[in-house]
Each structure stands twice: as C-alpha cells, then as structure tokens.
C-alpha cells in the first residue's frame, strides 16, 4: 500500500479503514446519532439495532452467539477484562488461583499478569517457546495442574507472526479443567476464527488490526462464564454489567462491517495472495548481497503478511531512519515512557542481542502490490548500502 510516495509495511500495527467500512460508519456520527441505551425513543432504537447487527456480524465471523460478544475500547482492555476480571471473582480460599501465560504474549497480557501476581497474590507461570515462537506443549503440560485457573496464549504473535496450534493447546488446558483465554488480535488476517472460538473460553479482538476503526475491540465470553467475570469498569451496568459505559455506535458499526469483510467468499484467496507477496519479499531480501535471515517459523504457520527480518551487522533503528519517509515498517519493540526496549519476543526465541537489535518487522496487507514489494526491496538495499558506506 502506498500513501503518496510512501510504502506502508506496518499492517500489524494498524490497518487502514476501507471506504466501504467508513461509509457504513458515517451516518451514525451525525444522522442516526442516538444513544443506543436510550430505550424511550426512535433515535435510541435505531442505534441499538445497529449495535445488535454488529454483534451478529462478529458472531458470524467467530462462530459464536451474539450475546457472547462484549464491546470494549480494544484488545488491551479486552485482555485486561478477561484476566483481571477472572481473578477478581476468585475466592481467596479457592484451590484454582494460578495463571499460565506464554512468554511472548502482548505486553498488555504481561502487564495484566504482573497485576494478578502483585495485587492479587495469584501465582503466574510463563510457558516457554521454541526458537520459532511455538509454545512448548510438553512444558505447558508439565505446568498445568488442578490449581490453574486460566491459561492465556495468543493465536498469532504480533512480532514474528507465529500461529499457535490452538486445538492442541486447548486439549491440554481443558483436560486440566482450566479456562483458556486467547488474544486473537492478529488472527483475523491469518486464520479462520471459528477454528479458534471452538477451542477457547474467552477471546480478545481489536478492530484496527482487521480493517476496522481504532478505539473498539471485543471480548468473546462463553455463555457459561458470564457470571465469572468481575467488571474492571463500573457505571450504568450496560452490556449485562460486564462492561459499563455507552457503547460507541459508529465504532460498533465499523467493527461489524470489518468482520463482514472476513466472512466473504474471497477471504481465503486474499490470504493466499498475501502469502505470495510476503514470500516474494522474503525471497528478494535474502538474495541481496547482505547477511539477511528470517526470524520465526516459515510457511503456513506464519501470519500471511509478516516478515520479521534480521539484517546482521546493522542496527534496525538506523535502517528505518534511512528509509523514511519512503517505507514504513517497525522494529516491533515496545516503548514505555520514552525508553525504547529491545524485543522480549526475539529474546524469548533465543536470538543473540546483536540480532535482536538488527531485526525489523515488515507487515504487508491485502492491498500491498508486487510493485510495492519490489520498490521496498530496492529501498532497503540502498539503505544498507548507505549505512555500510558510512561505517566503512
């Protein structure tokens, strides 16, 4: 995707909102602007109907019932609500108080785990991954026990694109009697979400990772668990008291319209074309006259648009700076309070520090063209040439 003269290769950070999705949202800003919780007039009824339609669209995408869909401000809130909401309902004398999470979860899950551990005194154990980012099923099985309340493992990693075997993980988790939460924010572009919902109890999604608007996400909460979560936001008791606050009708319409895009008959074809462009990028980069390698798993077990590339002997930040403003990508590292941290995901797959600092995440989207890929490879090659000559 090109914006003016810039090529956008950061779709795992956020995706653009297609015109068709935006067009469906716009009337709910200034025409059908009623509060969907206003039950006494037609303005509220129209908005409420739009919200219910969105729930149905999302339910159709993930294979659930509409009443199992709860709107939040995004996957970060959904993950917090799922994990902290569970632990706040746990009796201090309850046998099941331990949580398991993979060591490459999104930072909001890692931070939620710290809250669970430090504020609620519930043990948290980390499930290791192999050098491709795949959760160790053997280690998971060893960690599971009748004291585990919940396991949280993401469907698709946001940095290296590894797709987890949710079915096998679920078999282990359910055999132990624990609950299974899945951060699926990166999953819609990658896999059929019905194959995730079938095996989990709670699931988080974010609209802006799936061609919807920023500021809204959902938590899927299995019917049988709807009295097992303590809210983390209190107010008027909207959404069955699970998540209070006026739901933003235009954003609800947006995530519903985005969900509908992924229910279309051509979604498999779109994913396959995206895989071809991703593989083209990897192949073209790896034949350049530099020491370049792919981080993570190869082939179909990887996010269709993800190419996490290590440029040995270089610093990723330097490469990205030289590429501006022609090519947008990211290191995938987190930034907190202005302090840039190296990627804990790349550390978890045992990359040496020099390779962690040399790695860039390129994430392509459905609208990326072969020409975009060819131009990007040329821009990267010229950037490496410039940096190499500056250092010589």
Low-confidence stretches: none
Name the helicity range.
Answer: 25-40%
**How many structural domains are formed by the residues?**
2
Overall mean pLDDT? 95
Report the oligomer: single chain
SS content category: alpha/beta
Number of helices: 14
Q: For the largest sheet, list the strands in their spatial order.
A: 3-9-8-7-6-4-5
Q: Tell how many strands the DSSP assignment holds.
A: 15
Kindly identify the CATH topology of the largest domain: Aspartate Aminotransferase, domain 2
CATH architecture of the largest domain, please? 3-Layer(aba) Sandwich
Major beta-sheet overview:
7 strands, mixed
Q: Which structural traits does this protein have?
A:
single chain; alpha/beta; Aspartate Aminotransferase, domain 1; Aspartate Aminotransferase, domain 2; 2 domains; globular
Layout of secondary structure:
Layout: E1 2-3, E2 6-8, H1 19-25, H2 27-30, H3 42-62, E3 69-72, H4 75-87, E4 98-102, H5 107-120, E5 124-127, H6 137-143, E6 148-152, H7 166-176, E7 179-183, H8 194-197, E8 202-206, E9 217-221, H9 249-261, H10 267-286, E10 292-294, E11 306-311, H11 316-323, E12 327-328, E13 335-336, E14 339-340, H12 344-348, H13 353-356, E15 359-363, H14 370-391
Parallel strand pairs: 2-12, 4-5, 4-6, 6-7, 7-8
Antiparallel strand pairs: 1-2, 3-9, 8-9, 10-11, 11-15, 13-14
Would you kindly provide a written description of the structure presented here, covering whatever features stand out?
This protein is of the alpha/beta class and 392 residues long. It folds into two domains: 2-16 and 265-391, Aspartate Aminotransferase, domain 1 (Alpha-Beta Complex), CATH 3.90.1150.10; 19-261, Type I PLP-dependent aspartate aminotransferase-like (Major domain) (Aspartate Aminotransferase, domain 2). Helix content is 39%, strand content 15%. The chain has helices spanning 19-25, 27-30, 42-62, 75-87, 107-120, 137-143, 166-176, 194-197, 249-261, 267-286, 316-323, 344-348, 353-356, 370-391, and strands at 2-3, 6-8, 69-72, 98-102, 124-127, 148-152, 179-183, 202-206, 217-221, 292-294, 306-311, 327-328, 335-336, 339-340, 359-363. The model has no long low-confidence stretch (mean pLDDT 95).
